[in-house]
TrEMBL record, chains A, B:
TM regions (residue ranges): none
InterPro entries cross-referenced by the UniProt entry: Pyridox_Oxase-rel, Split_barrel_FMN-bd
Organism: Chryseotalea sanaruensis
PANTHER family in alphabetical order: 5-NITROIMIDAZOLE ANTIBIOTICS RESISTANCE PROTEIN, NIMA-FAMILY-RELATED PROTEIN-RELATED (PTHR34071), FLAVIN-NUCLEOTIDE-BINDING PROTEIN (PTHR34071:SF2)
Domain of life, source organism: Bacteria
Protein name, UniProt field: Pyridoxamine 5'-phosphate oxidase family protein
Amino acid sequence: MTIKKTDKTSITRLSKRGVYDEASIYAILDDALVCTIAFVQDNEPFQIPTGFCRIGDQLYIHGSVGSHYMRHLAEHKSKVCISVMHIDGLVLARSAFHHSVNYRSVVMFSEAVRVDDKEEIYQSLEVFTNKMQPGRWADVRKPTDNEWKATMVLKFKIEEASAKVRTGAPKDDEEDYNLPIWAGVVPLQVERKAPIVDPEMKLSVPLPEYLKYARD
Amino acid sequence: MTIKKTDKTSITRLSKRGVYDEASIYAILDDALVCTIAFVQDNEPFQIPTGFCRIGDQLYIHGSVGSHYMRHLAEHKSKVCISVMHIDGLVLARSAFHHSVNYRSVVMFSEAVRVDDKEEIYQSLEVFTNKMQPGRWADVRKPTDNEWKATMVLKFKIEEASAKVRTGAPKDDEEDYNLPIWAGVVPLQVERKAPIVDPEMKLSVPLPEYLKYARD
């Protein structure tokens, strides 16, 4: 068990929505393509939305060695706050006040560590690519030495983290249930649509099996 | 024209993706249900994902007067960095290195201002509710005096902001176009599914017209 509940990660507002177990936190992270990374520079807040993947208790991001913020995080071993958020539905209550959304979010606090080990960099990019599109890594041209050298990978230990989750129907005030107002949930879902082939394809290559899940 | 391009908002990495015009920035903001708000507390980075709406050149959030972070932002007139991110597609290139996503993001820097004017608070909640679900505000029970008093609204001027956008097909290295690898884009789209009525409905109320867009 690597998750620590601290003052910074304890949910104080609507505390019943707080979730602290590793499996739930990992599942919410793994379901997200991007996170936002907040850090402090010259006493001011910055944040960057970026892709990521998780391997064990580490969250990995990658970018160019020329990226300002990657270099800043690496050089300063910066403290960061990382969040991911899924919106699963609009919660339409009878009262404006009780309108809400169903969501799953994670907020974690960590520090940037530059990954220098070549095997670890390779593995993180493979996991990252296959997270984005399962089956893709085996199918594509692998990075050249120059491409590897142009890539910076940072990792963040997932240790001080918590999740917050809301599910289900609206909760209205008792007397409002008698109002003639429709109430319920509009589910939201991120859907993968039918793949669009690159118009610059020179060869006729059939759609790979791993992309055939997609529908229009 | 209220948008200023500054050192902090100039896109340095892949600068051709930088977008600085007000209309584009507003459209990306308006298309998002949630943003993340980063701020500094005790020299450490924090961030909160939260719903928001835009009215003119102001971004509004609301929360409970009991919320720690809302109170912190209000009391310190905190500097913030706010971001929103849409992922519009997976960009599957021939090489692992050129894999990407199509996205629209905004990053802005601003300062928290507590809204005390009652009319402005009312307007922001109406816009917020109708952004979440067009047509909803006219249909629901409006806030009571006690509910208004329990609600804190903060606003942030949209002034120092930039967007970053990627669209279209993969860009591969010239020689890779001859490889027998499928390349293209998998579009991602957030879909509203068929509304689920609250099982606690006491009265039989038909689905409102404004919810009939939804499909399964």
